[in-house]
Design a protein that fits this description.
single chain, 250 residues, alpha/beta, D-Maltodextrin-Binding Protein, domain 2, 2 domains, five-stranded antiparallel β-sheet, 34% helix, globular, Solute-binding_3/MltF_N, Solute-binding protein family 3/N-terminal domain-containing protein, signal
Length: 250
């Protein structure tokens, strides 16, 4: 009974957290977005921790508030997010141009100033790291990926889709795949949580997280960029990143 009460308490806190950023504030614009992605995308989004919901979950409302833009959260699975952006059901998401072929976000979108750096690696078990020191070594091989995620070179390898970064690390341990693609922070976090040693091999992509905003809202970019600049200048972005990553080492 105590456990259920605690779970209910956390749900209420998360509901209040979401409510305060989704209710109208008489701003001229409102943008719809989805923050879920993978529920194991630690430390960017953490679905079951109301008090520490993740770096991106914390930063988006701060950026929108400073830019005087209302945000409405729509909950969609990762595989539907890209289609929802294409059709206009969603107005923006947070991505890295490094995930896209030739870093091209496509004709429907514009991008904001960089929010924070993000690096993805080929991740494998320690005994296999020498097999993936060079990024070209993934070509033609089956590589673990997250369903619905974008990979700039997925024509070069065979995708083995799993539901989350957590499941990718489990798949390595069970030898279902020999290597996976993951950000360093998610891979190291789940390695620690699951007590499954992993090694970071070749860098797969290296870039910055940005707003991928539908072009019809391009007039909002100056306000969004100014909000990002303010949060960088006052140290808020660095503080949030440090809070979530200081216990993780590469």
């Amino acid at each position: 009974m105590v456990k259920r009460c605690l779970q209910y308490k956390h749900l209420v806190r998360f509901a209040l957290f979401a409510l305060c950023f989704t209710q109208p504030h008489a701003y001229a614009e409102q943008l719809k977005y989805n923050i879920t992605g993978s529920y194991s995308w630690y430390p960017y989004f953490i679905g079951d921790q109301a008090e520490a919901p993740g770096m991106i979950t914390e930063l988006i409302p701060l950026i929108l508030s400073l830019a005087k833009i209302d945000g409405e959260i729509l909950t969609l699975p990762p595989k539907r997010t890209n289609n929802a952006l294409e059709t206009g059901q969603l107005d923006f998401d947070i991505v890295s141009p490094s995930w896209f072929e030739k870093q091209d976000l496509g004709p429907l979108f514009v991008k904001s100033a960089p929010i924070m750096q993000i690096t993805e690696y080929v991740v494998t078990l320690p005994e296999n790291v020498s097999k993936y020191k060079d990024i070209d070594q993934i070509k033609g091989k089956q590589i673990g990926t997250v369903r619905g995620y974008l990979y700039h070179d997925d024509k070069d390898f065979i995708r083995a889709d799993f539901t989350s970064e957590q499941e990718l690390v489990k798949a390595l341990d069970k030898h279902r795949v020999d290597a996976i693609i993951s950000g360093n922070y998610p891979a190291l976090y789940w390695s620690t949580q699951l007590r499954i040693p992993v090694a970071l091999a070749a860098v797969h992509s290296d870039g910055d997280l940005v707003f991928r905003l539908r072009k019809e809202h391009a007039d909002l970019l100056p306000a969004i960029n100014q909000a990002i600049a303010t949060l960088k200048a006052n140290g808020k972005i660095d503080a949030i990143v440090k809070n979530y990553t200081q216990t993780l080492t590469s």
